[in-house]
């Protein structure tokens, strides 16, 4: 089974117009492997500038969150329809910071995935365990409990249009990366979890690793059979480092 590789940048609440300019200049002349997609997920105010400045065919626009509702009295929220008008193609859903700081539940996450798919956008569904959960050997339990509500909400067939980002919470922004072997083992668990319901779908879903990925560790991570790219936080704010990460990715 061949899968395209994806490198997605999660700028979180960082970046400015200067970064938009430097990043797009850097990516516009970067030669990527043919089967690699790069996704830039800035804060909403930078979408228009990024979209206007991006020339590279394999660079796409994403965001870090969206409302599960279509429109109405939801002050401060953004709808999928608005994102479509801004040329957005991907939406990060259920990042651990949204789950922990903004108390998004797995059921709400599932509703957001459904809304994103209904708008013909691609969700990047984030799942991952905390350090305490890994120590207590609950990783598989936690990941299953995060995946199952999404399967229940959208059905397994629709899962073929979802990208999953496995991000162990203890590795996000900490400099502690999962070893390539540990990440592969968990990615394989995720693929098998989906395969138990539908093997064809499981083989199609790109599984990204996220958590302190940088220019030095990306090669070994991306070399793993079930790691189809990365969701990059801190290192995606550094143009030269991010370019190295993008050039290292290869589809399978
Ligand atoms: C993230 O927040 O999605 C992330 C992976 O961050 P970092 O790369 O900084 O660990």
> How would you name the CATH homologous superfamily?
Aldolase class I
| Extended strand count | 8
Report the CATH topology name: TIM Barrel
Mind telling me the CATH class? Alpha Beta
In whole angstroms, the N-to-C terminal distance is 8 Å
Major sheet: size, sense and barrel closure?
8 strands, parallel, barrel
Low-confidence stretches: none
Average pLDDT metric: 96
**Beta strand %:** 15-25%
Largest sheet: spatial strand order:
1-2-3-4-5-6-7-8
Number of domains: 1
Q: How many helical elements? A: 11
What would your notes on this structure say?
This protein has 252 residues and is α/β, with parallel strands linked by helices. It has one domain (5-248): Alpha-Beta Barrel (TIM Barrel), CATH 3.20.20.70. The chain is 40% helix and 15% strand. It has 11 helices and 8 strands. It has helices at 17-28, 47-53, 80-85, 96-101, 106-118, 131-135, 139-154, 180-195, 199-204, 218-222, 239-248, and strands at residues 5-10, 36-41, 59-63, 90-93, 122-127, 163-166, 207-210, 229-232. The protein has an 8-stranded parallel barrel with strand order 1-2-3-4-5-6-7-8, surrounded by 5 helices. Helix 5 (106-118) packs across helix 7 and helix 7 (139-154) runs parallel beside helix 8 (180-195). It is globular. The model has no long low-confidence stretch (mean pLDDT 96). The structure holds phosphoenolpyruvate.
Draw up the topology in text.
Layout: E1 5-10, H1 17-28, E2 36-41, H2 47-53, E3 59-63, H3 80-85, E4 90-93, H4 96-101, H5 106-118, E5 122-127, H6 131-135, H7 139-154, E6 163-166, H8 180-195, H9 199-204, E7 207-210, H10 218-222, E8 229-232, H11 239-248
Parallel strand pairs: 1-2, 1-8, 2-3, 3-4, 4-5, 5-6, 6-7, 7-8
The structure holds phosphoenolpyruvate.
């Amino acid at each position: 089974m061949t899968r395209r590789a994806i490198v997605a940048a999660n700028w979180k609440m960082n970046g400015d117009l200067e970064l938009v300019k430097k990043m797009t200049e850097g990516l516009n002349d970067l030669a990527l492997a043919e089967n690699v997609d790069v996704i830039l997920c800035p804060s909403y105010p930078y979408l228009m500038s990024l979209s206007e400045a991006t020339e590279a065919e394999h660079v796409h626009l994403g965001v870090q969150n969206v409302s599960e509702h279509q429109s109405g009295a939801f002050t401060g929220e953004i709808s999928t329809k608005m994102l479509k008008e801004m040329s957005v193609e991907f939406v990060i859903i259920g990042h651990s910071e949204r789950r922990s700081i903004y108390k998004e539940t797995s059921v709400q996450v599932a509703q957001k995935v459904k809304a994103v798919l209904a708008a013909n956008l691609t969700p990047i569904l984030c799942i991952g365990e905390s350090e305490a959960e890994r120590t207590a050997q609950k990783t598989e339990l936690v990941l299953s409990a995060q995946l199952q509500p999404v399967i229940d909400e959208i059905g397994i067939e629709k899962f073929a249009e979802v990208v999953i980002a496995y991000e162990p919470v203890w590795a996000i922004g900490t400099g502690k990366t999962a070893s390539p072997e540990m990440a592969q083992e968990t990615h394989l668990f995720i693929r098998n979890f989906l395969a138990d319901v539908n093997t064809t779908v499981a083989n199609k879903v790109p599984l990204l690793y996220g958590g302190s990925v940088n220019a030095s560790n990306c090669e070994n991570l991306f070399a793993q059979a079930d790691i189809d790219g990365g969701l990059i936080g801190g290192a995606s704010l550094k143009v030269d480092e991010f370019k190295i990460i993008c050039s290292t990715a290869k589809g399978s």
